[in-house]
Amino acid sequence: MTSSVVSLLPRAEPLAPASKAALERVTAAAFGQRRKMLRASLRTLGIAPEPLLEAAGVTPTARAEELSVAEFCALARALNIRF
Which of 12, 42, 59, 67 has its CA 20 to 30 A from that of 26? Predict the structure, then answer.
């Protein structure tokens, strides 16, 4: 049997700052429909997704599972700025 000890240290600054509420909206919309491209799944936010994706620098044909945490945070920040 092997044991391990893990130590987690919080970052001094967030990896990619974003509003928690906006981040929750974006991730819920992005993962709300299986295997959909972001340009389709983000329509559930009630806005045109193309300007949001462009502002965040995310490819419209990407799928939610392909995005990094930083890219989701960029989408959340773009959502707060535009809407």
Answer: 12
